[in-house]
Amino acid sequence: MSLVPEIDYGTPASRSAEPVTLTIDGQQITVPAGTSIMRAAMDTGIQVPKLCATDSVEAFGSCRLCLVEIAGRAGTPASCTTPVAPGMVVSTQTERLKQIRKGVMELYISDHPLDCLTCAANGDCELQDMAGAVGLREVRYGYDGESHTKQEKDESNPYFTFDPSKCIVCSRCVRACEEVQGTFALTIQGRGFDSKVSPGALADDFLSSECVSCGACVQACPTATLSEKSLIEIGQPEHSVVTTCAYCGVGCSFKAEMRGEELVRMVPYKDGKANRGHSCVKGRFAWGYANHKERILKPMIRESIDQPWREVSWEVAIDRVASEFKRLQAKDGRLAIGGITSSRCTNEETYLVQKLIRGGFGNNNVDTCARVCHSPTGFGLSQAFGTSAGTQDFDSVEQSDVIVVIGANPTDAHPVFASRMKKRLRAGARLIVIDPRRTDLVRSAHIEADYHLPLRPGTNAAILNALAHTIVTEGLTNEAFVRAFCDRDAFEYWAEFVSRPENSPEAVGLLSGVSPDAIRGAARLYATGGNGAIYYGLGVTEHSQGTTTVMAIANLAMVTGNLGRKGVGVNPLRGQNNVQGSCDMGSFPHELTGYRHISDDAMRGTFEALWGRKLDGEPGLRIPNMFDAAIEGTFKGLYVQGEDILQSDPNTAHVVRALSAMECVVVQDLFLNETANYAHVFLPGSTFLEKDGTFTNAERRINRVRKVMTPKNGKADWEITLDIAKAMGFPMHYDHPSQIMDEIAKMTPTFTGVSYELLEKEGSVQWPCNEKAPLGTPVMHIGGFVRGKGNFLITEYIPTDEKTGPRFPLLLTTGRILSQYNVGAQTRRTENVVWHDEDVLEIHPHDAEQRGVRDGDWVRLDSRAGSTSLRATITERVAPGVVYTTFHHPETQANVITTDYSDWATNCPEYKVTAVQISPSNGPSDWQREYGEQAERSRRILKVAAE
Amino acid sequence: MSDDNKLVMMANQIGRFYVPQKQVEPVGAIATHIRKFWDPRMRAAIITHLDHGGAGLDPPVREAVQRLKERA
Asked: Which of A222, A613, A727, B50 is most solvent-facing, going by the fewest CB within 10 Å?
C-alpha cells in the first residue's frame, strides 16, 4: 500500500473547447485555449517550480518561482498567469531562470525557521521540495532572518494550528477560503515584510473568526503553517485509501490517510466527482467519534429496559434476537415484527436488512429514515417524471443561470455543495431563496439573493402555485418544451387550475405573508433568466403537503422547460449520506429495489426464485404506523440498524410509548443512543472506516466505501445481518459486499451495469447504469421523461391542520447547523461541540420583547405535543411569529414538541410546522430531568466476562 | 392503530389531493393509494370504521373505503 498520488497542475483546467498547440522544452502539446503554461507543462510531465500556485485556486503570480522564458518575448513571465498561445515556444529551465529561482528561494529560506526535522510537514513540504528542485545549496543572506518565530501559534481551532513563523505569505489559504469555500474569513494583514495571514480583525483568532473549518486553507497550505493537529501528533501517513464521507448526502470523496491502522487525517479527494476536492468541517475533521470512549464494542442484552445491560458473546446476542423474534411471531403472528434500515449504512447493508425482513421475517414491515425526510420526493417525482430521484449531477450547477433554493439551507446542511453553488453565484448566476428564515444564502459575502420570499411555514404549495400562476398568465410558458415532452391534457388542466384567482400572487400574498411583487418578480426571473435550477430540502418535504410541493416544483420545471440538460433540473438535497441509496435498495415497505411495487407478482416472483422464499405481496408498516401498531399491541419486535428513532422522529412521547410497548427492540449502532434506552438487545455497529460497500448520494452517484481498519466491534454491519438471518432460518451467503452488489445489479434494472469492478475503473457512476447507459446517467430525462410524457398534477393548497391560536401563537420550524449532524450521535462525540454544544431557540426580537425574553435566557417551549426548555437567541434570521431550533441534542429533545401530523401521501412527519408558545423558564423542565435520569439508568452496563 | 381518528384524517388527506385531479377518477385513485401504501391491518381498521358508521370520512373517501371493502 502507498499514498494515493494526486497531480497538482498548478492552475485550474480551462473549459474552452478551442485547441491550442505550443512547444514546451522541445515537446509539442495541444491544450484547451486559456490553459496556463504551468498547467500545459504539467500535462506533458514537466513540473515548473512553484509555491503560490495550486490547481484548486486561480493563478496569483506572487512567488516568482514559476518563471519561464518564451521565444520572442522579453522577460521571464510567470507560467501560472500566462496563458498558452498558438505556436508559443517555452523554456522552463535556462541558466537565467535557474539563477532567478535560486535567488527567490534564498530569500524565502532566509526568513524561514529551519526546524525541518521536527516540523509536522517534514516529508510533505512544498518549500522543502522547491529548495531541492531549484538546487538551493547556500543562502547568501544567512539564516538569521526575522523568521517570525516569536509570533504566537494560533491553536484555537480544535482541528488545526496556524503557525505564522512557517508562513511564506503565498496567499493560497486566503484564496482557498474565498474561491473554494466562499467564506472570505481570511485576509493578508500588514504590508511588506510584516504581511501576515489573519482570520479577520486583530482581535480574532481562528476560532472566533468567520472561519467554518472546512479545511480548504489547510489543504492549500504548502508548508506547515496550517497543519492538522492529528498530523502533528501522529506524523506523516504512509498509505491512503479513497473512500466516501459518512455524513451528509453530498457524498464527498476523501483519502483516508493512514499510518498502519491509525487514521492520521481525512483529505478531500480531488478526483471525487461530488466534491471536486473540497470538504466541510464534519467530513474533514469530525471523525473522532470512531474512537470515542463511549463507543460500544461488545453485544449486550437485558430482559427488560429497567435492567442494566449485560455484555454477552455475539452468539448469545444473535441467538437472543432470533429466539425473541420467533417467539413473538409464534405468539402474535407473522406481522408482529419488523425492522428499519439505515441511511447511514451502505447500500449492501441496507439491501440485506430489507432482504432479511422480507425473506426471513416473512413480511414487508421494513422502512427507513427517508420516511421522515425525503419520502415525498420519491413519490412526488415518480408521479411527475417517472423516477424517484433528482435529475442532475452537482457539476450541473456550474451552468445554471438562475438558482432557486426552496426550504434548504445548504450552507449548513450540504456545505460542500453550497460552496460550489456560491462559486457559481459569485460568477453571476441569479438567486431566489424561498424560506421562512433569512438563511446565509439570502445575504453573505459577495452573495445576495435577487428575491427572498420569506413565506409563512406551511404555505410552500401556495407560493409555488403563485409562481406558476405568474408564468402561465403572463405568457412565460415554454410552449415548445411542454408540447414536445409533456402530457397535453394534464398541462391544460393544470394551467387552468393555476390561473385561477385564488392562486394569484395577490391572493397568496395574503396567506403566505410574501409580497406579491416579489412572487411575480421571482417567477419572471426563473422563467426567463436562462438555465433555471431548483434545489430543495426538508423545508419542502416535511410538511402535510410535502408531496404536493414536490409535484409543484416539478410542474414549475416542466412549464419553463428547465429539465433534460445541464444547468437546470429538480434537485432534492438529501439529508443523510445514503438516503438515496436506502430508498433505491427497497427499504420502503411497499416496494422492492428500484422502486417496484411489492404487489407486482411477476417482479416479486423473480426475488422469490432467487431468495427461495415466498414473499408477501401486501405493503408493510411505515415507521409511524409501526409506532401506532405497537401502542395498539399488534407490533412487538423491531430491529433498528443505525437510526435513532427516539430522537429523530416526531412526538417523542408517542415514540417512547411505542418502544416501551414492544417486547424486543434490537438496536445496532455505534453508541447507546436514545432508542437504545428502550432496547433489549444492543448489537455494536461498525463505522464507515471499518467496512467495504457503497453509498449513493443526492445526485444518484454510487461511490465506494473502503475499509481502512479492522472493525473494532469485530464485525461489519452486513456481517451482523447475515448472522441474524442465519439464526432466523434464512441463511444468506456472501463473502464480500461486492457479491451483494452483484445481486442488487442482477435484480434491479437501473443498476444492471453496476459492479465494484466498474466503480474501481470509473471512480463512481450515477444510476441508471445499465445497457442503455453503461457509464451511468449524470442528467436524466434528456429528450423525454422516464414515464413517457411529463405529468402536470393539480397541486391545490390545503392548509395544515396544525393551527396557531391564542394558546400556541408562534410557529416552530426545525433544522440543522453546520457543525452538528442529525441526532448528533457522531458529531456530539467530536470537537465540533466547540461550535454547538446545545440546541438554542431562535426568536425574533419583537416576539422576544413581548414575552420578556432576553438573549441567552432559558425559555420554555410548549406545543400541543409536549414541552421542553432551552436557551433563546434573539435574531432577525427568523420572521416575527416564527421560531426555530435544531434537534442535535438529546438533552433538549426538540421532537418532544413536534406532532403526529404528516404528509398525505407518505406519512413523512410535519416537522416544519408546529404551533408553539414561548415563556420564560428557570432551566430544564421536569420532563427533561426525568428523561435524563431514565437515560442514565438505562445506560448502566454490568461488566461481566463474555459468555 | 386503534386511533381511528388518525386513520380518518390520513384518508381524508389523501382524498383532498385526489379530488381536484382531472385525469384520474378520484374515488378509484384514493382507494388505489390506500391499497398500495397502507398495511392490511390499517386497511382493515378503516373498513371497520366505515362499518361502524364511518364518522368523519369525507364523502369520496367514504366511497373509496367502501370500494376497498368490496375488493377485500
From this structure: A613
Q: What percent of chain B has pLDDT over 90?
A: 90
Please report residues of A whose CB lies closer than 8 A to that of B39: 335, 365, 589, 618-622, 625, 629
Residues of A whose CB is below 8 A from B22: 489-490, 493, 794
pLDDT value of position A111:
87
User: Which pLDDT score, from 0 to 100, does residue A943 have?
Assistant: 73
* Candidates A489, A620, A631; nearest CB to B39: A620
Distances (CA, A) of A707 to A192, A693, A737, A756: 48, 8, 11, 14
Q: What is the dihedral of CA A297, A303, A306, A308, to 10 degrees?
A: -40
pLDDT at A947: 46
- Chain A: nearest CA to B6, how far in angstroms? 9
On whether the CB atoms of residues A72 and A27 are closer than 8 A, the answer is no
- Under an 8 A CB cutoff, do B10 and A632 touch? no
Least CB-CB distance to B36: which of A590, A632, A794? A590
For chains A and B, what is the number of CB pairs under 8 angstroms?
71
Query: Which residues are within 8 A (CB) of A814 and not within 5 positions of it... i.e. 6 or more apart?
Result: A884, A885, A886, A887, A894, A898, A911, A912
CA distance B70 to chain A (A): 17
Name the residue among A547, A548, A628 with its Cβ closest to that of B6: A628
pLDDT of residue A146: 72
Would you state the pLDDT for residue A946?
47
Residue labelled with grid coordinates 500500500: A1
- Residue A29's CB is within 10 A of a number of other CB atoms, namely 18
Is B44 touching A (CB cutoff 8 A)?
Answer: no
Q: Which residues contact B67 (CB under 8 A, 6 or more apart)?
A: B27, B28, B31
Q: What local confidence, expressed as pLDDT, does residue A756 receive? A: 98
How does DSSP assign chain B, residue by residue? ---HHHHHHHHHHHHHHHTT-SSS-HHHHHHHHHHHHS-HHHHHHHHHHHHTT-TT--HHHHHHHHHHHHH-
Q: What is the pLDDT of residue A169?
A: 94
**Residues A465, A559: contact at Cβ < 8 Å?**
no
Task: Find the CB nearest B21 among A620, A793, A906.
Answer: A793
The set of residues, in sequence order, having a beta carbon less than 8 Å from that of A539 and lying 6+ positions away, is A406, A407, A408, A409, A435, A436, A460, A813, A815, A912
Complex confidence, ipTM: 0.97
Q: Which residues on chain B are in Cβ contact (under 8 Å) with A487?
A: 23
Flag if A632 and B6 touch (Cβ within 8 Å): no
What are the grid coordinates assigned to A944, written together?
A: 461481566
CA distance A353 to A734: 14
Of A825, A944, A829, residue with least CA distance to A887: A825
Quick one: A883 exposed, middle or buried, by C-beta within 10 A (0-12, 13-18, 19+)?
A: buried
Chain A touched by B34 (CB under 8 Å) = no
- Classified as helix, coil or strand, A656 is helix
Closest by CA to A25, choosing from A52, A53, A45, is A45
Counting as low any pLDDT under 50, the low residues of chain A are 946-947
Give φ, ψ of A34 to 5 degrees.
90, -10
- A58 vs A64: CA distance, rounded Å: 15
Q: Which three cell numbers stand for residue A260?
A: 498502519
Nearest partner of A479 among A559, A533, A402, judged by Cα: A559
| d(CA A636, nearest CA chain B) in Å | 13
Residue B17, pLDDT score: 98
How confident is the prediction for chain A on average, in pLDDT?
95
Cβ-contact A257, A248 below 8 angstroms: no
d(CA A652, CA A656): 6
| Residues A680, A337 contacting (CB under 8 angstroms) | no
Of residues B6, B16, B41, nearest to A634 (C-beta): B41
Q: Give me the DSSP letters along A816-874.
A: --TT--TT-TTGGGSGGGGT-SS-EEEE-HHHHHHTT--TT-EEEEEESS-EEEEEEEE
Site of grid cell 511564506: A168
